[in-house]
Design goal:
By secondary structure, the chain is mainly α. It has helices spanning about 1-20, 25-50, 60-105, 110-115.
Length: about 120
């Protein structure tokens, strides 16, 4: 309960601070706040970048991102329809397996318990 209270207080403080600074106002106010933040943070970020031993790779170009999106979208669509095509077969196999398991479990009951119920 204390953990939830702390998390709620941090979240509430963050929301209050962003509303107070004008993050959720018009885009001009948000842009000015971003520029102010960038100006204040740039000396620290420069020092931090010097300490990092590697550089981030460049972002992929728009046509590459577009190609990858289309490729993975098509893979998802193909997999979905392949699943739907095989669904009757998998359902039949599952029902048959369940029926066989249930029938073998009920047919292996001891004979004495079956005779006592008659």
């Amino acid at each position: 309960m204390i953990k939830f209270g702390i998390k709620s207080a941090v979240l509430g403080s963050a929301v209050y601070y962003t509303v107070d600074k004008g993050v959720w106002k018009d885009s001009e106010t948000t842009r000015e706040l971003y520029e102010e933040l960038e100006k204040g943070m740039s000396p620290y970020v420069g020092e931090f970048k010097k300490q990092i031993p590697f550089e981030l790779p460049p972002l992929p170009s728009n046509d590459r991102v577009s190609y990858l999106f289309k490729y993975y979208w098509n893979c998802g669509v193909k997999s979905t329809f392949q699943f739907l095509i095989n669904l009757p077969t998998h359902t039949t196999n599952a029902i048959t397996l369940a029926y066989d398991k249930i029938s073998s479990a009920t047919s292996n009951e001891p004979a004495s318990s079956q005779e006592g119920t008659k």
